[in-house]
Amino acid sequence: MACKGAEKINEKIEPQMVESLEGLWGIFAEYIKIQWEQFVYFFEEKLIEPLKEEGWKVVRTKERQCGLVDGNQTRKIHLRYRVLQKGGKSISPLLECLNIEKRRRYTAQARLHGCIEAILCATYSQAAHLTGVSRMSLWNWMQELAQALPVNSVKAYSGRSETLNCESDRFFLAIWGEETKQPVHLGIIYTGKEIIGNNGNRPYRQLENKRWILEFGDLFSARFEGEIHSRMARDTIAFYSSDQGEPTEKRAPHVIFTETFHDYFHLERSKKRGEGIPEEEWEKAIAYRGYFGSCESNVKVAKNRLARRTWSLNGLRNFLWVMSYVRNGFEPLCYYYPESSIEPPKGVNQRIHQVSLPLSVQNGIFHAKSDEWTKNRAIDSGFVS
User: Fold this and answer.
1) pTM for this structure?
2) DSSP-assigned letters across all residues of 214-236
3) How many CB atoms lie within 10 A of CB 73?
4) CB burial string 300-329: b at 16+ within 10 A, e below
5) Is position 76 within any domain?
6) Which residue has the higher pLDDT, 273 or 155?
7) By residue range, what is the domain housing residue 36?
8) Domain for residue 141, yes or no?
9) Sequence-ordered strand ranges (E) for the chain
10) Is residue 320 within 8 Å of 244, Cβ to Cβ?
11) Do residue 53 and residue 162 come from a single domain?
């Protein structure tokens, strides 16, 4: 049995007047509009029914438009709602039930969706074209979301990972008011690599428990160390690889790593230029070629979105915070500051995780996640500093 809305729209259907699919879709859209208004009315009626029994009275009916997420697009809908009053107090049950904020033209989900599209697209203009939201609105939402992200401070060595792999790299962006391009640092942290397929004769690996840290200026060390300390215990076997060959004292000065590496590609380029490279670093880079250097592909992702334009300082910093937040599965980054660290218990060797092993042994630890070698066996082997 057809509903009342269908009966009304049925009276307007004249096949001889419909000349295209667009025309038929227009009639269907009108039918949907009628059904939507009826559905909202009955939904609201059930909300206010118990309130009427408590003495609340309907004083007026209001209308507004609101943007919501519909699939991958932002759609604006018309909404009619009732205002109730009791003892001088007014409420709008429908708006409160649907978490629609006053003076907000879009829902919180729509604003978050707009920020995600602004990150995934090449420009704000492209994101505005896809979402149907203005560029300025997307920019404002990005600033609001960045300022609303919580600040999580962690203490030193508060994690539980047995192994931890850390990498960092940087690239340069143009900033308003600066004569030269400024560095943006990118760090990734993961617990290992899992083979999920093959690319010809080469295995295709995916990083496990990956965290993405993208920051501008001196704040990178606080964020990078925060993510490391949130996963690292005092006996964790931790590796650090720098694509730019920067020392750990510059990027993670308050973390003691088991071993450090330089990326093979950058060392080879430096060698061709005739720059002096310690033989030990070259041997390690060759031994671990292909198992570090994951930061390079992540830098390309960041540069494809951020390069070829000039940023304001605050606009860039907020964008980097939101980009890290989205890339990390909507989990905010941790911070670490030296003054927030805890003092180690007396009599405990703070450097117990600093293991000096031959490359062949370290290679077995790094590659085989199911390997029987553990931190305790590493200590018992005698290769402990």
Assistant:
1) 0.73
2) EEETTHHHHHHHHHHHTTEEEEE
3) 14
4) eebeebbeeeebeeeebbbbbbbbbbbbbe
5) yes
6) 155
7) 1-12+27-105
8) no
9) 57-70, 73-86, 89-91, 152-153, 161-175, 182-190, 192-199, 202-208, 211-216, 232-242, 259-262, 310-311, 334-335
10) no
11) no
